[in-house]
Amino acid sequence: MTDTTFWMSLQSGSGTTKEGETNTFNVNSNCTGCWVAGTAGQNDPFNVDGTLIFNLAAGASVSLGGWGDASYRGAIIGQGGKVEVNGSGQQGTVNSGNTWDTSGYFNIAGKTYNNGTIDINNCTLYNWSGDWHGTSSITGFGTINLTNVTLAKDQYGNQDCYWYSSFVNVQTQTINLQNSQISFGTKNGDGSIDGVSINCSGGNNYIAFNVGMQDNVKGLSIRGFGGGDIIDFGSRGYSDNATYDPQTGILTLATYNAPGSLVYLHIDIGLGYDPTQFHQVKTYTGSNDYGIQYDGPAPCYLAGTLIETDTGMKPVEILRPGDIVLAIEGDRRIGRRVLWAGKTRIERDEPADRRALATAPVVIRRNALAPEVPFRDLHVTAEHCLFLSGGFVPARMLVNGISISHDTERGSYDVYHIELEKHSVINANGALSESFLDTGHVRLGKAGSKVQEWGRDSCHPLRTDRDFVEPLHRRLMSLAGGREERAVQRAPQEIALLVNGARRVAPLRRSGNTVVFSLEGPVHSLSLLATTVVPGESIGPYVDDRRELGVLVGEIHLFSPTRTVSYTRHLEGGALQGWHDHENTTCRWTGGRAELPGLHSDGECCLVSLVIMDGAVPDTLAA
């Protein structure tokens, strides 16, 4: 065991750490520019096969490897190797005009191979060589654990955040975040991500991607993204817009790289999110940046729910790991051990809009499913599933407003998760329900979590298809004494064009499915505006489509005195801000505001025609 203290700035030592050894460096207060490297000097790589520890006092900064770009080779961390960093808890400072005038952070050097573990705690992580050169890299198949890690501020105290990046080029690493901030790429748009998995826990995590690097991001997945976490596609002074595909689990972020230049970033965040629960949120920066946050709660029970155990019915909130819950398999009851019991706080202080409704719990009233089933009111989150007719059905899809309804009067509340040895059907207040299945779509502060999947890890299939759910919904409505009303198809949408981001123009005329607009003056940008409806609301909750649909658009043409343009960007596939996923080559659904990038006219006047397809909802959903 070796123990070294850096008493002054610009000191260095050997980072070589053999298997079974512990090599500790203590960096004194305000000592900056220190580093560890091999014995031959700053550019000498070194092996870490034991435990290399850094203890940083306030204002101290140290580098794992030499200070420089990718030609400065850093640590080679073996499979059993570990780098541990313990900071002072103070945020580091960067002088954007002089990168040597920095303090209070940990730097991972230009070229690092990590096949082991890097643990960073209570510290600022700032990639000095990345900010200065844009070429630093971390490769290998290792794990990086970040707890209470922050981005740097500048010398004036401004929270520039994503400009002072944590990583530039990262390949095949697993990054675990708890109450931490990280940024990828450089402010110049350099950087790449390949095969990286990010796991969030505990909430209050901030993940930023500098605009410009989007074409070099592949194989990126984020799991555990939930309440309190922010994803930011960082472009100074611009807001992010998000579209989530519930079929693929892909979150598409859109922002501007420059005025009129819209760019996209696609991230696999996993299945199980409510597309209506993503919203813009102010980021940590002092500018007009807005990132994306999610508000939906996890599938779980509210306090007071009685769960059947080997010793009788017990309140869910008192169950602990090791307790035995009875799983139901056909006519048998099988005791299964509780592996994990968790609690999540759901904050509800929003107005009574659609987003607030989705966070409201669902109440399954006594006798709602059958006589004495449940035997008393059962309160669950909207995504929690009941076991009916051989499949799991989310509670939200069974809401009828009589025997099953949203509890909109409830304020903030706690919910409880019970994970068993395997996913199981369990007895909750006399109704068949489910134990917790960790699909990784919410942050739960759950150590050692392994992401599971419906179908592969569930004991029965998840059923959200209309053919299965609608008959159940109608049967439960009839049992409650209600009558199912057929959905009334909405009238054609009132639409408008927003010209140059400022002027709203109504249609000049309509002829069948064709809508024509007359526009005056040069047209630099166009947006198609439409009011929206959600099929799951306009038809019925048994339709698992929570998209906010505007109009279904086919052909688009622009006519000017000098040319005719057939616009096809929306039909060619790929992400477009304000448009839903591309489903076919003839038409595409808009949201409330769909951008038409590249459609412009330099003349004094022009006409724009759009073909609005028949039908207020997709044909596959029409009642």
From TrEMBL:
Residue numbers spanned by region Disordered: 1-21
Entry-linked Gene3D superfamilies: Hedgehog/Intein (Hint) domain
Superkingdom of this protein's organism: Bacteria
Pfam families documented for this protein: Hint_2
All residue ranges annotated as the Hedgehog/Intein (Hint) domain in the record: 299-439
Name the UniProt record assigns to this protein: Hedgehog/Intein (Hint) domain-containing protein
Organism whose genome encodes this protein: Swaminathania salitolerans
